[in-house]
Amino acid sequence: MRQELRRKRLLRRSDLELNDVAERTARAWLYREQLREILERKQIHVVSEMLQQWCTNVMRSKVEPMKDVARLIRRHFDGIVAWTQTRQTNGFIEAINGLFQAAKRKARGYTRFKTMRTVLFLIAGKLDFSAFNSHAR
Question: Residue 108 belongs to what domain range?
Answer without folding.
Answer: 91-125
